[in-house]
Amino acid sequence: MYSSIIEKLKNAKKIVFVTGAGISQESGIPTFRGKDGLWRNYDAMKLATIEAFYENPNLVWEWYNERRNNIFSSEPNLGHKAIVEMEKFFEVIVLTQNIDGLHQRAGSSQVLELHGSIVKIKCTVCNYREVIYTKFSKIPPLCPCGNILRPDVVWFGEALPQNVWKKAIIHSMDCNVMIIAGTSLVVSPANTLPIYAKQNNATLIEINPDETIMTDDMDLSIRSTSSVALPKLVSVLNKNLGGRGS
Ligand code: OAD
User: Fold this and answer.
1) Of 50, 120, 121, 161, whose CB has the highest number of CB atoms within 10 Å?
2) Ligand 1 first shell, C-beta below 6 A
3) Domain boundaries, the chain
4) Ligand 1, atom nearest to 44 Cα
């Protein structure tokens, strides 16, 4: 398995990672649709839409406050760290659906957050934006203009930040290999990125303990968790492409 991956990687210059909740699962952050997934216990339509927020901002903020707590007490795992190590061999771009910031905390140098960030908040009315690394003691937090602040994340029915999305498409169309780790690939438009990569004949590799709806489109699938598969991949790269690393 890993030897056929090396075959695909040895001439690669640029690798794009598309990541989702599964890559942070081993850091103690729950996924959305897995066994203990958040959307199995909570109604997404009551917590992650602008309509739900206007209906009950306190409920939504309580939930995000809990997620902030969980994320702030989590650490990057071996999967996040292995992606950083791959920068020794390739240009590595991380396109993540996660809002937890763990790729950046691990040290990845080029990360695009497709769905926003847990540390960012913005006003529902004016252009005020802020970055806050603590839990809110008073909810809902208010803007200096007096209106309610909201998490600066992408909710269901909302568009991705267009500047980020355009860059994500360009990177996907320009990579030799796309590694898709820890995402069910059911959420659009992030799940169209492998199609853009394929248009440029990139090799698609999936890392996921379970099959996804796009498994049949993959060139290779590794049925394992990301904190096991990615360090193994790095160790095989070290053995085979060691001379290329700095
Ligand atoms: P999902 O919860 O839909 O999928 C997580 C995937 O990770 C599943 O395919 C699991 O099999 C896999 N997985 C679980 N543990 C893993 C591990 N240790 N290593 C590798 N893979 C593992 O999460 P996402 O695909 O990220 O959006 O969900 C996409 C979007 O849907 C999220 O960004 C969020 C959610 O609703 C919004 O809130 C807008």
Assistant:
1) 121
2) 20-23, 25-26, 31-34, 37, 44, 48, 97, 115, 154-156, 181-184, 186-187, 207-210, 212, 225-226
3) 1-28+76-115+160-246, 30-73+116-153
4) 36
Q: Mutate which of 183, 212, 222 to test ligand 1's pocket (most atoms within 8 Å of Cβ)? A: 183
What is the per-residue burial (b if ≥16 Cβ within 10 Å, else e) of 33-50?
ebeeebeeeeeeeebbbe
Q: How far is the CA of 180 from the centre of ligand 1 (A)?
A: 11
Assess whether pLDDT exceeds 60 at residue 98: yes
The Cα 155–Cα 99 span in angstroms is 12
Return the pLDDT at 136: 86
pLDDT at residue number 74: 98
Q: Which residues of 124-147 are buried (b: 16+ CB within 10 A; e: fewer)?
A: beeeeeeeeeeeeeebbbebeeee
How close is the Cα of 114 to the center of ligand 1, in Å?
14
CA 43–ligand 1 middle distance (angstroms)? 16
* Four-way CATH pick for 1-28+76-115+160-246: 3.40.50.1220, 3.40.50.980, 3.90.25.10, 3.90.1720.10: 3.40.50.1220
